Amino acid sequence: MSAENDTPRLETRNLVRHFDGRRVVDDVSLSIRAGQVTCLLGPSGCGKSTTLRMIAGVEMQDSGEIWVDGKLVCDTIFRVPPERREIGLMFQDFALFPHLSVADNVAFGLRQGSKAEKRARVEELLTRVHLIGHIDDYPHQLSGGEQQRVALARALAPRPKIMLMDEPFSGLDNRLRDGIRDETLALLKEENTAVLLVTHEPEEAMRMADEIALMRAGRIVQRGAPYNVYTRPADLAAVAFFSDTN
Ligand code: ADP
Ligand code: MG
């Protein structure tokens, strides 16, 4: 493996964030490689979204560093703006642009390339998420699951180095969720993206993660392959978390 491939796509070093004097994110260090899915898993309020928002660049850390592809993008003095971090985002309320067609939604973030190249990328992704037949439809004509797949295609269109996903499937019907999880995972792997997926559901982390980072009260208390974290929880609180929410 070359030295370049060895460089993590995303690295956070000792991220800290306070709100109202409370340490909401407490010394969070993560490292994610291309093609790897890391799930930041923990109960509601433990600091997952705040961590993700700092990486996205929409929230400032009090201390710590964020590196993308071996380059510093943010510390306490230096800050690359969110739109220049080559990061794709997907949230629960995925909010497609209602006045734009499916094709234009997916093309929205494509700044480089000719018109034909952009069109080819849009068609490639819509084919991949099985929505090519809806290319000229508008979001209101699609189901929730279909809209979510368009949102995924839109986020991946510019080939982001990193995908940040915050509970992206929690708005979906139970019956749809597993299928969309599997489809999403397959596409993320094909695109070789580094993924940080935030969830409070152990089941989702078990299904999607290469690595789980278990978070509690702002800290990462355990990390490892899903099977290892699940079968050998670090402490009683981790045992309780896995059994409570299942
Ligand atoms: P999670 O995503 O794990 O549910 P969050 O990162 O959203 O957790 O929130 C962690 C803690 O920080 C919570 O107690 C939340 O109330 C608090 N918090 C988050 N954002 C703010 C804010 N802008 N102002 C004050 N407190 C906040
Ligand atoms: Mg959250």
TrEMBL record:
Keywords recorded for this protein, A-Z: ATP-binding, Cell membrane, Ion transport, Iron, Iron transport, Membrane, Nucleotide-binding, Transport
Domain ABC transporter: from-to ranges: 10-242
MF terms in GO: ATP binding
Top-rank taxon: Bacteria
Claim: Iron-sulfur is one of the keywords in the record: no
Protein name according to UniProt: ABC transporter ATP-binding protein
